[in-house]
Hints:
Layout: E1 6-11, H1 21-32, E2 37-43, H2 47-51, E3 58-62, H3 66-79, H4 86-92, H5 94-113, E4 119-124, E5 143-148, H6 159-164, H7 171-179, H8 183-189, E6 192-195, H9 198-208, E7 215-217, H10 225-229, E8 243-248, H11 257-266, H12 269-272, E9 275-280, H13 286-295, E10 302-306, H14 313-319, E11 322-325, H15 334-341, E12 346-349, H16 354-357, E13 363-366, H17 371-387, H18 389-403, H19 408-425
Parallel strand pairs: 1-2, 1-4, 2-3, 4-5, 5-6, 6-7, 8-9, 8-11, 9-10, 11-12, 12-13
Helix pairs in contact: 1-19, 11-17
Amino acid sequence: MTKKLRVLLIVEQCNPEWASVPLVGFRFFDEISKLVEVTLVTHERNQDAIEKLKLPVEIVYIPESALSKRYYKFISKLVYKAKAIWPLYHTLTYPLYEEFNESVYQKFKDRILSGEFDLVHALTPMMPRYPYKVIKACQNTPFMLGPVNGGVPFPDGFKETAKKEFANLNFLRAVGRAVIPGYAETYQKASRVLAGSTYTLNLVQEMFNLPKEKLSLFYENGILSSLVESAKPKFPKTEDQPINLLFAGRLVPYKCADLVIDAIAQLEAPVRQRIRLTIVGDGSERENLEKQVQSLDLNSQVHFSGWVKQEDVFSYYQEADIFCFPSVREFGGAVVLEAMACGLPCIVVNHGGIGEYVTEGTGFKIDPISRAFVLQALTDKIRLLIENDKLRGDMSVNAIARIREFTWEQKAKQIVQLYREMLTKQQFIKLPPFDEEIVIENTEVANSSEAL
Length: 452
């Protein structure tokens, strides 16, 4: 029987009961641990949720000091008093991450130096702004970082949206890079860096002058295999049946749910009357959006569901026919993958990660030239998909086929493929042949700026 690789997996945000980054971190860990021998190190805040699953894996939980707990409560009140100010939040929470970072180093440096692990993989935070001190102990052990994602600027045509999102505070990123110890060292000494979007890949390559062979484009979001296996293409509808549009996401300025509402208002009456738009999510813009719907006399066509549990969101995808998500600054955009997995043609803005998920055969990508340009293009694409049943059906079939590349099972296989390539090329250990269970068929792991 072939010996499994021994991997120290650092996933600070790893929680099966939470959404966004913590859930992504858990999905990666869960699938990777089925293919290699994993020791997981994560924050104690995730302990209750993970231990419910009784996983047969060594898991080390890093505790948080009493001072850090009080500090977190303080900055949460400060940052969320009116609305989330993300640049400020990420800056102020760095001390909390640094406590975790230092604790991981102290707890694992001797085990790494002794050669207990074949490889160290630091998976979260996914934002490319924090260092990992354990790289100092990886003298004879390869170190993988990522997928990191972020740093995507607002499009020039959306300066007003940028102001609403406090983009004027983004200079704090550069300040952080200049003063945080070990930041550049983490990237420069890493054996492999995974980037979650082409923009971020190019950003870190230029910022740290990294050779192309050290970088891989690797989208951080995925989809459950069970959802893909049960996916069914959307069937054509009769002319008297409504076409269900869906928007899902936080109701904040840069997600641009207001553009979907305005696009519906611009459509000719016969087309507009067929539409039913459901907006799933909540946030600071909800009141403004509700007033917008009322002023445009669209109350009978637009419904707000409010915040919905992660496990309940899929019922909305399954009821929908078209997914509209004109977010102008999206890093990962898991909702787009979820929509595609349910056979929905997607209309997105071609800026950041989501523009790389959607292809010509699965939906439409709109360049963010200006708000007026995006609004007109969004209106035109909605009209086209409503009037052309065949196109809508073909895109539904193609979306389901496309999403098979993004299952968590497949992504874990790709990660393990990269592990083995790193170990072989750097001659850290002599690897036996692949186990049959982790051979990747018809899949190429991208290097440099090529897509998966």
